[in-house]
Amino acid sequence: MTAPTQPPATPDLLYTQDEEDLRSAVRALLADRADAPTVIAATESDTPYDPRLWEALATGIGAAGLLVPEKLGGQGASHREAAVVLEELGRSVAPAPYLTSSVVATETLLALAGDGGPAAALLAELASGALTAVLAVPFATPPAGARAALTSLDGTVRGVADAAVADVLLVPTAEGLYAVEAAASGVVAEPLVPLDLTRPLAALTLSGATGTLLADPEASTTAVRRGLLAGAGLLASEQLGIAEWCLTETVRYTRERHQFNRPVGSFQSLKHRMAQLWLEVVSARAAARNAADALATGSPDAPLAVAVAQAYCSGVAVHAAEECVQLHGGIGMTWEHPAHLYLKRAKADSIAYGSAGSHREAVAELAELPAP
């Protein structure tokens, strides 16, 4: 007689008290160091990143090491806590290399750190906030596209997020995964002009560069795929933060803005638009939290949860930002108002780590459904 199978555990998508305490700490820090005028001013300068902000976030709060086990020098937390940090970074569109360094690069190294060695040593440096690292692949690379962009440490990779400010480059090649110092001879990071000025892109050119081999080609592909999967899954939380800020600020503004002697938010047509947006944001929160929980628990359904979250949340963030600009009227079109920062971040995020279309295809494949 066959024993009855146990139903799968229902994921807990509610925030714990520890997660709420972390949110409060990060939100207070960003309100003090990355308010709208500060972020706008940073995008107009040659140094969009504030080293003091990163030090406070990475070291003071300990956010850089959330995904790193305590035995490797980290906080021993999970993707759920990292997702909370990204929600708050999305709310403030703060220029910080958290997603690229503390999530994608860190997850890539975690796949290789089981036996110690250079990957474990580098992880300890990232967890302490002393160094930042980036995975040298185009920012639009989906998890399924985890292939070596170069045959060796020679060539150019375009559209690498945060490459110009990183200390270490994780370079996947046909020979394996290398760790290359960004300041080493033969390494040039040429800044590009991105749509989202709060997350700089660069064309990374290697010419006769040298680095430390971290993994062979097979292990490299597995590690890079793991890093990109975590990046795509937690990017949904950043997109949730963008959408939540846009909705909150739009509701606040339409309550205060009067026309015909009444708040413009009281007009039925605007009520309907904001109610629809609220429904989308609530659904996005469920999708983003499910992806973070699946990654945190190591669920076999994590790739599906991530694909669902990205297929949905990217569109919600863009829609929320577009509504924010439009419903703020003329002021929403000005450079001084931060709405344009959120629209640009949402648009840039919508193709980061794979477009919504590529993730919908992944959902169809993973769920064994016919492609649309």
Strand percentage lies at 5-15%
Instruction: Tell how many strands the DSSP assignment holds.
Output: 9
The side-by-side strand order for the widest beta sheet comes to 1-3-4-7
Mean pLDDT across all residues, rounded? 91
The percent of residues in helical segments reads 40-55%
Question: Number of helix segments?
Answer: 11
The low-confidence parts are: none
Q: Could you tell me the radius of gyration in angstroms?
A: 21 Å
What does the model show?
- The mean pLDDT is 91.
- 51% of the residues lie in helices and 11% in strands.
- The chain is α+β, with helices and mostly antiparallel strands.
- The protein is globular, with a radius of gyration of 21 Å.
- It has helices at 17-33, 36-43, 51-60, 79-92, 98-110, 118-128, 217-256, 268-297, 302-327, 339-349, 356-366, and strands at residues 133-135, 155-161, 168-173, 176-181, 187-191, 201-206, 212-215, 258-259, 262-263.
- The strands form three sheets. The protein has a four-stranded mixed sheet.
- The two termini are 41 Å apart.
Brief description of this entry?
It contains 11 helices and 9 strands. It is of the alpha+beta class and 372 residues long.
